[in-house]
Amino acid sequence: MTLTPHRPAGTAYAPEPDLGTPAVETDVTVRVTVDDRDVEVPAGTSVLRAAREAGIDVPSLCATDSLSAFGSCRLCLVEVDGTKGTPASCTTPCTDGMVVRTGTEQVQRLRQGVMELYLSDHPTDCPGCARGTCQVQEMARRTGVAEVRYGLPTPPGPADQEGTTEAFVDSPATGRPDVLAMARAGLAHHVDGGEGRDASNPYFDYDPQACIVCSRCVRACADVQGTFALTVEGRGFGSRIAPGPTDMLGSECVSCGACVQACPTEALVERSLVQLGMPTRVVETTCAYCGVGCTFRAEIQDRPVDDDADVLPGSPTTVPEVVRMVPARSGGANEGHSCVKGRFAYGYTNHEDRQLHPMVRDSIDEEWRVVSWDEAIRRVADGFRAIQDRHGVGAVGGISSSRCTNEEVYVVQKMVRAAFGNNNVDTCARVCHSPTGYGLNQTFGTSAGTQNFESVDHTDVVLLIGANPTDAHPVFGSRLKQRLRQGAQIIVADPRRIDLVRSPHVEAASHLPLLPGSNVAFINAMAHVVVTEGLADEEFLRERCEDVDPYLEFIRRDENSPEATAAATGLDPEQVRAAARLYASAPNGSIYYGLGVTEHSQGSTMVMGLANLAMLTGNIGRKGVGVNPLRGQNNVQGSCDMGSFPHELPGYRHISRPEVRAIYEDLWGVSLDPEPGLRIPNMFDAAIGGTFRGLYVQGEDIAQSDPNLQHVRAALTSMELVVVQDLFLNETARYAHVFLPGSSFLEKDGTFTNAERRLGRVRPIMPSKVGKDEWQVVCEIATAMGFPMHYDDAAQIMDEIAATTPTFAGVSLERLDREGSMQWPVNEAAPTGTPTMHVEQFVRGRGRLVPTVFVPTTETTNRRFPLILTTGRILSQYNVGAQTRRTANSTWHPEDVLEIHPSDAELRGIRTGDRVELSSRVGTTTLTAQVSERMQPGVVYTTFHHPVTGANVVTTENSDWATNCPEYKVTAVQVAVANAGRPGDAADGAADGAELVGSRPSGASR
Questions:
Q1: Cβ atoms 602, 521 nearer than 8 A
Q2: With the CA atoms of 8, 14, 19 and 20 taken in that order, what torsion angle do they form, in degrees rounded to the nearest 10?
């Protein structure tokens, strides 16, 4: 591999500051004196936090500012004037005029006694103490303890003739064991594989001998994650942390890493830290998985370059390696929490499958041939120009990626419009959240959600429909569970019994298992109850909305009542009425939804129906309310914002508007086509029809993720030139003629925009492994086609975005680096961003109420296909699995399975583990059955993370009437025991596979 020069990023490693207890939110302040230092803090702030804010570092082991105070370690004792005893500073709130002393002789003596007790039960050879990740030895030093009066754990070293050991180092002053000297000497009482060690989890180990039973991990699992997988067993010195009656892997643990992050010792430790050692540098960046957009501290170790590496002049002499990814407390979206994907599943960036060189071939039946970047770019440019010469300017197009940065996506749409000369650009949002863009734009005036994630902390009732946040958006799911445990209520409308229906300390007020395809009938019934029972907010409607009377006349009709819609929804009318009353009567009612709303033939109608319900009840424009789409990929919002749709320029401005086109025509020096281009489905149809001949695909696997794969693959095969830019040779690359290697998020510079419109910085941890940034490759293709495109860096691209897009007018990478993430719009009216939209008025002025007529889907069951298939995601895998399948996350989900209700399974003679054939009108695939009461009778469910399953072989081309978003959530199917069926594992699935999945092209070179 050739190492190229790059700008160093990040700062020297240091842990994030920890102030001991959470901040208190109040406008009332008090003044306290700590060790003669005056400090002003919010009323209710702990003495521990006040002391640390004043720069006085009171020792502690059980306290952390991500958890409520617990007061178990007794190291943070202080004296308070006028108060008897020595209270724990973490549980003592500050009062006005309080005088605190943290280092008196009595306090120091008590701390030393407590510390000796900890040391008497702590390994003398603790590797974490030596590394600096275990705080016990550091606390011993800070409290002045160098010896232990109570004895130490017996080392397992060789015994003498009397059976005693000679592994202690005594203090010459007292003759008692000197624990610090022993730690420095590496004397042991337990070595690797000590008693009770749990190494079942693929990412971290648990060693109970290093545990001080401070309960931070137990509290993190309960209070932050909400899983309650850990508990304390036993009493006194016999107490230990346990994941229930099993090991970590077999427990309820979801591997979010909260326990590991909370642990003050090395009882819970990442294997990567043990294997690689301590980091030397930290770079803050944004996760590249779901739409939550978590902020992470990438902790890096710079290791020397191998002697045989091909190093260019001026290149660094070290190669960065990620030691671990730690969620940042400063993260606006995650506030220090994470999930198994973002926290641990980053190893795919170095996977052996990753392609590092451009490759070409003349036919998809040939092997790949490695070429230089110059030859590859010339091949792409010449190929597209030749196609346009033969078939016209509109015969080529591009698809941008929701996994790439805003800056990378922006240059793709610019290349298509300016270099290709057409508007044939689309994005994967076409197949997920395009109805969100249409529906919210029609009703509110902008194509994005209304709130930030913090808003859920203020909600009273949540209507959750078509989303499974504990699996698909787990960090937000944890935050939602926190609010539910505090007393908020939730209505879950979902065909499947998801975890939020009932899980530890969380139970839905109502689960509405509506039939797939009946969303609009359901939301109309909810609105009907609100209006006919006098629950609407008449003042809000009259002051802030338009088209009120026509909508009210429509929704009052009997056809929209819960009773009239029951046949379509399958729901008990009284249950619907109770849910409507609960939502409408809440002080703050919020709506959260996902792909179970948008991926329907009436997806756009349903989004407008949700907006109608929020406006009817006045639940817009303040904290705790709103209409909130949970975006599926890390930059779906951003790819839409950047003008990736064929009818819109950046900022959701229609291509037909001459004043908008003029902005870009003046800047780019070309004329833009005023007519919208082809959507992805139109591209496929035109390819089969012979008029669309060339396609550039950036970071999307359309041959796995799009519906009716037989049609997709026929379209790709029909094209003369397919160009794929990606990390791996994915399913789409089977049909490609040019492969351009991409860069992982660890190599990118720019921004992602999450589901709450938050622009988060993406910073390069290492230089591009392929020698070029993705935006640079796009610019060179455009330049080779005759349209010069050049930027010095990603910051210049964002500057152009800000200069031409009003909602981003105040954004720059330099400002984001200085001030942190921001939520658009960021402009003169909102210079620091907009956490809550539509506060005084809607973006369009008045909110628009739209009649939402229910039109049943044409995808219906019959005798041949009597079941309905719906699809979704699972916690450990992500989208088409290209990233997560190349990590240890496959430990939990090695294959896609088909969930089927026991009654449907019994009728077909199916048992859990059977190989079953899943067939629809368009295709057939084979996968493993899982009999589950999560499903209702007549409905089956699967995921689409594994290409060998090819779940989208069976999905049809039915799509949303307004946006062509595919109807993934409703497919009529039949399920039967496979002819060659046998109980099997993932290997069996690979042998059977989907009807249309072929073999990977050979000859691919890394």
A1: no
A2: 140
